[in-house]
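Note to self: keep these together.
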Amino acid sequence: MSIDSVLAAADEVHKRATRKAVLRLLSVMCAAYFMAYIDCTKRRSGQDPSVPPHSVSAPASSSSATPSSKFRAT
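Structure:
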């Protein structure tokens, strides 16, 4: 058994392991992307009761309260 044959065997094992990992991870990533897409479209259409559609809150005006009046020591 020479070093070349050991390296060739190690390369073959590495190639198979990499292919197996990529196929599994790619399928998981596709499933996660699909679920995120479904969730996003569900929220946009208003079908998700926990999140109202187009729920964009207006920024708080600076004239309503100053930082010193909001955080007074008691």
